[in-house]
Amino acid sequence: MRRLGSVQQKIPCVFLTEVRDEPSRKRECQLFQVVATENLNPIALNADVYSALATEKVDGTCCYVTTYKGEPYLWARLDRKPTKQADKRFKKYQYSQKSTKGFTWNVDEDFRAVPDSWIPAHGVQHQNGQPVPDEHGHIPGWVPVDNENKQYCWHASVVNYEAGEALVLRPHPEDEDLLEIINVPLSELMEQTLELIGTNVNGNPYSLGSKKHLIHLLVPHGVLRIRNAPLVEYQALHSWFQGCHEGRVEGIVWHCNDGTLVKVHRHHLGLKWPNGATVLATRPVVIHVEKSDNDSKDSQKSLFTVLSRFSGQHFNCIQDIQFEA
């Protein structure tokens, strides 16, 4: 069985989209929004989306596990973005043309600097030896998560490089209705992408932890499968998101048999997110985190250590996991 969920670049919408002259529901200060039409994207049709596997789109920040300095390492998403002036020029063109096709970039001058350790994402096109921006004006890429870099402190809290492990949230292998929090060897996650969720990520729609006791976890892409998924049709999806308990998700990502990924976000359909209790926040969970014997980093305040004290315990939902003061 092929591995699911390698998210290296922006995933296209399952529907063709259009730009409307109204404030974005997703991005503040954006005076236009991209919405889905009722026409399926040819990319989805060509990949036979009707026979694809539907999975929950998780609201976090994308991560990647690959080698750094000869060892398995967690990498954070860092898209190389245009300078303020170049972005203003790009947005003006997009607004006037209702498209980004035909816009010309000067990669040397139009884009901000990135760390020397930065690498472009798989699939980024190159021209004259330089990576080419995508249709959103970004160059997708990654930087290694260093324990000393405060910018990635939430990423760092879910990895223990001394023990070579990461904290993962996934369905229990013997009961798909039950979630488990487990420490997984980074070597087993090699070349996978995952979503970092938690207390200080994207407003914490899953109610993980608290301001006093932070919880952050990695969710491998593609593991949260949607059973009895709705038809891949605009009105059916709209009704499912609005009327079903299972529809209380940020969106759906379809994994097609040829490896193509397509998605739909609630915002594509003009729907609010989050909107009440999310499905992920209400699922039961068990903790299986074992403390490592050769762990020099794992202090008493480490998330690994704290969760290990609850190992074997079941909770009605992940938001019920609360640490003692």
UniProtKB/TrEMBL annotation:
GO molecular function list: ATP binding; RNA ligase (ATP) activity
InterPro entries (alphabetical): RLIG1
EC code(s) of this entry: 6.5.1.3
Reaction(s) the record says it catalyses: ATP + (ribonucleotide)n-3'-hydroxyl + 5'-phospho-(ribonucleotide)m = (ribonucleotide)n+m + AMP + diphosphate
The organism of origin for this protein: Chanos chanos (Milkfish)
Gene: rlig1
Domain of life: Eukaryota
Pfam families (UniProt xref): RLIG1 (PF17720)
Class of this enzyme: ligase
Swiss-Prot/TrEMBL cofactor(s): Mn(2+); Mg(2+)
Protein name, UniProt field: RNA ligase 1
One GO-annotated biological process of the protein: RNA repair
Role of this protein: Functions as an RNA ligase, in vitro. The ligation reaction entails three nucleotidyl transfer steps. In the first step, the RNA ligase reacts with ATP in the absence of nucleic acid to form a covalent ligase-AMP intermediate and release pyrophosphate. In step 2, the ligase-AMP binds to the nucleic acid and transfers the adenylate to the 5'-PO4 terminus to form an adenylylated intermediate. In step 3, the RNA ligase directs the attack of the 3'-OH on the 5'-phosphoanhydride linkage, resulting in a repaired 3'-5' phosphodiester and release of AMP.
UniProt keyword terms in alphabetical order: ATP-binding, Ligase, Nucleotide-binding, RNA repair
Organism lineage: Eukaryota, Metazoa, Chordata, Craniata, Vertebrata
